[in-house]
Structure formats: C-alpha cells, structure tokens
Design brief:
By secondary structure, this protein is α+β, with helices and mostly antiparallel strands. It folds into 2 domains: about 1-80; about 80-220, no CATH class. The protein contains 6 helices and 10 strands. A hairpin with a 2-residue loop joins strand 2 (about 55) and strand 3.
Length: about 220
C-alpha cells in the first residue's frame, strides 16, 4: 500500500506567491502527515494494528517531511502488511530454488499456525507463519555436502532458507519478526517437540528431530 504526493514546479510556484518557502514545506509536511495518519487509522480498523510505514522524502528514507523539495518533490509512505511480507518470501524462495525436476521449487509450503495455506493467496490471521519445504532432500539442498566436500547443490547458492530469512528481516524487520529455524512437517501438519515424560514422548520427539527441515518463522510485531 503506497501514498505518493508529488509537487512540481507549477504547484510550488502557485503557493510561493503567498507563502515563504519554509511555510510551503511546512504545509506539505502537514498534508503528508495527515495522509499517513489516515492510512494508519484504516489499517487499525482492518488489521487491528498499525504496521509502521517506511517513509522516504525525495528518495531519502527517514528524512524529515518538511525537507521535501518545492519543485518536483515526492513523499512516499509504504506499509508492508503481512500479506506483502509472506508473498515476497514465497516468491524469493521459488526464485532461488535449484530446478531439475522442479519438485523442490514447487514444494515450498506455508503454514498459518498449524494450517497449511496457499502461498500468494489470502492470509488468515495467525500467531505464527512458517515456510518450509517437505521434500526429503530439503536439508541437503540447504547445507548438504558431497563426499568430496563440495556443496550438494552447485547450480544456485545454498542456504536458500537462511539467506531468504536474513534478506526478509532486513527488508521487513520493521513490521515482522523473521528468523531462520527448523520445523518438522508430516502429512500436511507441523510436529511439535513435547516435554519428555515417557517412552512414547521420547519416540515422538525423536521423530520430530528426524523430520526437521529448514524453515522461516514469521510473527507480526505488536
């Protein structure tokens, strides 16, 4: 979601005749701040929270609104809501995937809490979102080595999930907590590690550890 206000030379000249340059910039800043506040209020109504916007002034991220140029100045505010974050991660994982049969590239999976949901589709509210790839060789693609010591995959850089988590954190860290981890998928669900209290629990935890694959964990900031 983006608000973009552009002020060209004609607009500025029509105002400067009655106002000083400082007053014009102050008026522009006041208008942009009001627009941002209006979108914040809409986000609160729809999302129940206000994701912080990324604001740039004439291409300068975080610059004061009142520093906008009078001729051709541009103020842009972007709100990256969770759907944007998840769509970017899903798309990036596919773009970075090695392709032989295409199975790995097409098997990236997204869970909203414990429910599998389509990547790029409508995102239901959830406390936690998890990306993973359930193919048996996902761990090898991430960090595996051959007997000779080279990376298991050579057609693309390895650590696909780890690199994507780092890049997503750098890009969207102001609106979401994003981290690389491991999760265990089984039959369309996520296994959970449970406190060991007997043979059955130990067996379940052993299975959970064995099935773990590289994952990206995403939670919204409060």
């Amino acid at each position: 979601m983006t608000i973009k206000s552009t002020f060209d030379a004609f607009d500025a000249a029509s105002i400067v005749s009655d106002m000083s340059s400082a007053a014009v910039r102050a008026a522009v800043a006041q208008f942009a701040a009001a627009e941002i506040t209006e979108v914040d209020a809409a986000n609160r109504r729809v999302l129940g929270r206000v994701p912080p916007p990324s604001v740039s002034v004439d291409g300068r991220l975080g610059a004061p609104l009142s520093s906008v140029k009078l001729d051709g100045g541009v103020i842009v505010a972007d709100w990256a809501v969770i759907g944007d974050v998840l769509a970017w991660i899903g798309r990036t994982l596919q773009e970075r995937s090695p392709v032989v049969s295409g199975r790995y590239r097409d098997s990236h999976t997204l869970f909203a809490d414990d429910a599998e949901v389509p990547i790029g589709g409508d995102v239901p509210p959830a406390a936690q979102y998890v990306f993973l790839n359930p193919v048996p060789y996902a761990h090898k693609i991430e960090i595996g080595k051959t007997k000779s010591g080279r990376d298991f995959v050579v057609s693309v850089p390895n650590r696909i999930y780890e690199r994507t988590a780092d890049d997503a954190k750098a890009r969207f860290g102001n609106v979401a907590n994003i981290r690389f981890s491991y999760r265990a998928p089984l039959a369309g669900a996520l296994l959970k590690y449970v406190p060991v209290r007997g043979p059955a629990s130990r067996a379940a935890n052993a299975m959970e550890r064995e099935l773990r694959v590289p994952s990206i964990i995403v939670t919204l900031r409060n």
